Amino acid sequence: MAKAEKVVLAYSGGLDTSVILPWLKETYGYGVVAFAAELGQGDELVGIQKKAMATGAVKCIIKDLRKEFVEDYIWPMLKAGAIYENNYLLGTSIARPLIAKHQVMVAQQEGATAVAHGATGKGNDQVRFELTFMALDPTLKIVAPWKDPAFTLTSREAAVDYARQRKIPIEQSKKKIYSRDRNLWHISHEGADLEDPWNEPKDDLFVLSRPVAKTPAKPDYVEVSFEEGIPVKLNGKRTPGVKLIETLNEIGGKHGIGQDDLVENRLVGMKSRGVYETPGGTILVAAHKALESITLDRETMHYKQHIALKYAEMVYYGQWFCRLREALDAFVDMTQRTVTGTVRLKLYKGKCTLAGVKSPQSLYRHDLASFTMGAEYNSTDATGFIRLFGLPMQVAGIVDRDGQSNAKRRK
Question: Which pTM value belongs to this model?
Answer without folding.
Answer: 0.93
